[in-house]
């Protein structure tokens, strides 16, 4: 049922008419996110600018039982901000102010719609560092990062979004505003509600402000690229680096298909005749960086790397890292439909998982390019397919299921960073088990008894 004229008038009264979009051509850009083969038109889009507007909008939505899908930049890869039919999309991209940088406490307070890049730039302008760096950071919002608990290329050494969230302002589905967390480094008063909202995928509340931890900027960095004729050699290099008790800030991997697509797209001079490539970055004190880089170079060579290139300056390092960041976009150019997954396993099971993905591609006659955060055990097998080909899509689904089953069998998870959304919800019960599913459903019911926030995501209602 379409949204009523009365509701649309009331919404316009809260945010002003120009911030309520209802025309088809205005709604289309909000009818999908970064997830392949998923689209649904919303009833309307509301662009909020203040927390008090979000409060009024949620009160109205709760009273009228209108579904609300919160949206940052819509770069999500599990269908989290995909509209439900006739829902209200609450877009926070205009709530993008950097509110306070506290040098004494090393914290940054921002509105949820600020981009990850703006957060990183604000920290850098003060000589500080905000490490989480999802590949989408130029456009993704910090609210979306918190809602998905996003990772990034520096996760191995510095951790993920959760490790930098000190406090959150959240508007609950009935319009009540809740602050959880503060600038204290230690605080164990009560349940950590902050942790509950991190990774809640828009199903428990609308995050409007985020208090982030910043750290000192590393003084030096070195970037290495190692190429291999055999995938197993690259996997062994990763294991050996970790076993040598070196934790580089970045330890990323590209397979042959991805290397070719990236080189075609980014033209950074990657060799095209290799099976695997590792992008390795180490940062910290200059002496430690030099020593770690030298040891990793030896380990790479010892494992049969054909070539190890050390970036000669910052510009080359940035170019090489940018090439890795472009992996998804580069793969997306070669097939009409690109489905990117994020099966994740303990690091010790990486080589087995990579072999399984390759065998699955062969078995189902599919093209898969794999890249990912190898140091985190987080792989992105990316299906290069065509959603119009029903037979091929059927084989893609079977391959997915087999890959997730294998990840679980190896002690891994169905998603390392992209979230459950709609894309993984069928796999969640098997992964989480009955007790966890019951507790998660009950938490949702307690916070959102009318089920207005992002219905149908993570679970069926
Ligand atoms: C090219 C590319 C590269 C990527 N690389 C990475 C990567 O390296 N690591 C990684 O983890 N992810 C990556 N992603 C996935 C995606 O960018 C992240 O999930 C990101 O955090 C989503 O941010 P967003 O602002 O686009 O959120 P959206 O896509 O708009 O929303 C994502 C989810 O969060 C909810 N949400 C958004 N804002 C709020 C809020 N303020 N309050 C409550 N709920 C909210 C939505 O309802 C939805 O469920 C990549 C995506 C692309 C397209």
Short description:
36% of the residues lie in helices and 21% in strands. By secondary structure, the protein is α+β, with helices and mostly antiparallel strands.
Key traits:
binds flavin-adenine dinucleotide, 21% strand, 15 helices, 18 strands, seven-stranded antiparallel sheet, 461 residues
> Termini, distance in Å?
18 Å
Total DSSP E strands: 18
**Distinct small-molecule ligands in the complex:** flavin-adenine dinucleotide
Mean pLDDT: 94
So how many helices? 15
Round the Cα radius of gyration to an integer and report it.
22 Å
Tell me the helix content: 25-40%
User: Can you tell me the overall shape?
Assistant: globular
Structure class: alpha+beta
Structure description:
The chain has 461 residues and is α+β, with helices and mostly antiparallel strands. The protein is 36% helix and 21% strand. It contains 15 helices and 18 strands. The strands form four sheets. The chain has a seven-stranded antiparallel β-sheet, sandwiched between helices. A five-stranded antiparallel β-sheet has the order 5-6-10-8-9. Strands 1-2-4-3 form a four-stranded mixed β-sheet. α8 (231-243) crosses α10 (286-302). The radius of gyration is 22 Å and the shape is globular. The two termini are 18 Å apart. The model has no long low-confidence stretch (mean pLDDT 94). The site of flavin-adenine dinucleotide (FAD) has 37 residues, from β3, α5, β10 and α12.
């Amino acid at each position: 049922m379409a949204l009523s004229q009365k509701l649309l008038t009331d919404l316009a009264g809260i945010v002003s008419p120009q911030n309520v979009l209802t025309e088809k051509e205005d709604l289309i850009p909000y009818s999908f996110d970064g997830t392949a083969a998923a689209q649904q038109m919303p009833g309307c889009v509301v662009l909020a600018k203040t927390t008090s507007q979000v409060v009024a909008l949620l009160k109205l939505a709760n009273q009228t039982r209108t579904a609300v899908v919160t949206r940052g930049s819509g770069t999500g890869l599990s269908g989290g901000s995909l509209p439900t039919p006739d829902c209200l999309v609450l877009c926070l991209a205009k709530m993008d102010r950097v509110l306070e940088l506290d040098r004494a406490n090393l914290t940054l307070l921002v509105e949820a719609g600020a981009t990850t890049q703006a957060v990183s730039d604000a920290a850098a302008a003060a000589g500080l560092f905000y490490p989480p760096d999802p590949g989408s950071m130029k456009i993704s919002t910090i609210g979306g990062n918190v809602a998905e608990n996003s990772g990034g290329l520096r996760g191995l050494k510095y951790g993920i979004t959760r490790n930098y969230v000190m406090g959150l302002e959240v508007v609950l589905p009935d319009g009540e505003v809740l602050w959880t967390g503060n600038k204290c480094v230690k605080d164990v008063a009560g349940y950590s509600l902050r942790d509950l909202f991190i990774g809640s995928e828009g199903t428990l509340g609308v995050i409007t402000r985020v208090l982030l931890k910043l750290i000192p900027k590393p003084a030096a960095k070195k970037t290495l690229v190692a190429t291999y004729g055999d995938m197993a050699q690259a996997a062994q290099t990763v294991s050996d680096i970790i076993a040598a008790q070196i934790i580089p800030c970045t330890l990323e991997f590209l397979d042959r298909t991805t290397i070719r697509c990236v080189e075609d797209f980014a033209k950074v001079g990657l060799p095209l005749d290799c099976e695997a490539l590792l992008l390795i970055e180490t940062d910290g004190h200059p002496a430690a960086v030099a020593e770690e880089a030298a040891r990793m170079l030896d380990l790479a060579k010892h494992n049969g790397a054909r070539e190890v290139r050390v970036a000669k300056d910052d510009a080359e390092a940035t170019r090489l890292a940018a090439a890795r960041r472009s992996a998804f976009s580069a793969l997306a150019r070669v097939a009409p439909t690109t489905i990117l997954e994020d099966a994740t396993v303990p690091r010790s099971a990486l080589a087995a998982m990579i072999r399984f993905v390759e065998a699955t591609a062969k078995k189902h006659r599919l093209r898969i390019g794999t890249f990912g955060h190898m140091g985190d055990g987080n792989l992105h097998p990316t299906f290069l397919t065509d959603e119009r080909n029903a037979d091929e899509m059927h084989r893609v689904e079977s391959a997915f299921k087999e890959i997730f089953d294998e990840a679980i069998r190896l002690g891994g998870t169905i998603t390392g960073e992209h979230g459950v959304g709609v894309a993984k919800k069928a796999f969640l019960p098997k992964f989480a088990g009955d007790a966890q599913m019951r507790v998660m459903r009950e938490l949702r019911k307690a916070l959102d008894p009318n089920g207005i926030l992002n219905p149908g995501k993570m679970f069926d209602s």
